[in-house]
Amino acid sequence: QVQVVESGGGSVQAGGSLRLSCTASGLTFGRAAMGWFRVAPGKEREGVSCINYSGLHTYYTDSVKGRFTISRDAAQNTAYLQMNSLKPDDTAIYYCAADIEYNGGPCRFEAGYWGQGTQVTVSS
Description:
It is a single chain. By secondary structure, the chain is mainly beta. Helices cover 0% and strands 50% of the residues. It has strands at residues 3-7, 10-13, 18-25, 33-39, 46-51, 58-60, 68-73, 78-83, 92-100, 113-114, 118-123. The strands form 2 sheets. Strands 2, 4, 5, 6, 9, 10 and 11 form a 7-stranded mixed β-sheet that branches. Strand 7 (68-73) and strand 8 (78-83) form a beta hairpin. It is globular and about 40 Å long.
C-alpha cells in the first residue's frame, strides 16, 4: 500500500521561509517522479514544482522560480520543497504527489498518489 505523507507547513510572515517534506512508502522511490501542487482559496490546482526520478530534471511554475527549490533524498524516500521569500499569494494547501508522470514539462497529475496536504499561510 502506497503512503504519501507531507509535513512542514505552517504560518509565516511575508519574506519568510518554510520547508515542506514528503515521504513516500510502498513504492520504488528511486523510480518515482515527485511533484508539489497547491490549491489556493478560490483557485484551481496548480503544479508548483516537479522533479524526475533521478533528481536531474526539475520544473518550477513561473511564480515560484528563484524562490522555491525542489529536491529529493533517495535514502530517506523523501522529497522536499524549500520555499524562500514567501508571499501572501503563496498561501494555499500544498499537496505532494508521488510516482507522477513527468517528462520535463509543466507538472501535471495524470496518475500517481496524493498526500493529505499541508497548509501554508503567508501573512503580509
